[in-house]
Amino acid sequence: MLQDLKKKKSVVVIRNLVIAEIVAYGLFMLLALSADWAEMYQKSFIYNYLSFTILEFAGLAIVQIAIIVVVVTRSIKEEQDIRDIINSGEHEQLEFKTSLRWDVKRDQVNKELERGVMKTVTAFLNSAGGSLVIGVDDHNQVYGLESDLASLTKQNHDGFENHFNNLFVSMIGPEFRQYVRISFHYINNKSVGLVQVDQAHRPAYLKTEKGEDFFIRTGNATTSLKVSQVASYISSQWR
């Protein structure tokens, strides 16, 4: 599993490098077609000391090195950013969940955990927004998504996001999906999911077997409002 995670992380970096290389190559082609740079260079005084071919290869080498440095640095920064988020601890706009559906104590899938995740997302939608990190426990310890992934039919991040989407649509509603973004990051060779939620433009409810529940964030907790409280909150939040 550790080797698989390292491989996945390497694949992401390589993919980003390839994309950057393609973009850079496209720009070089556009520049090459826009003018006869060799002829222009031959008219400069530098041509007597340095051939155009050497200058061209030197320029390409510098660009290649710059691309590698930028992509690798960005990957390192992304990991540091998610570390900083975790180290800040839970608060009104940040919550941690050990997993999406895998019960660590029972060592099995627990559907109630899925509801807990969607409850937090609903609360963020009804408040000032926030971020939910899945794969980290309440003590800021990174558990990872590996147990969740292993419990899915499609055992990768795409499968995780598909399952998250299905839960979201059935429990909250597709019209609110535009306010939610999910991304995956690696910390100590463990993957975690970062769910970023914007405040919705109208109230969001969590569907239940008996009807619907309304949740908001109060401090670092998710709170359910009574029917008598919902109308007052909605009028103050969405005017």
Automatic annotation (TrEMBL):
Bilayer-crossing regions: 12-34, 46-73
Keywords: Membrane, Transmembrane, Transmembrane helix
Annotated Pfam families: SLFN_AlbA_2 (PF04326)
Domain Schlafen AlbA-2 span(s) in chain numbering: 90-224
The keyword Ribonucleoprotein appears for this protein: no
Residues of the signal peptide: none
Domain of life of the organism encoding this protein: Bacteria
Protein name (database record): Schlafen AlbA-2 domain-containing protein
Species in which this protein is naturally found: Candidatus Yanofskybacteria bacterium RIFCSPHIGHO2_01_FULL_41_21
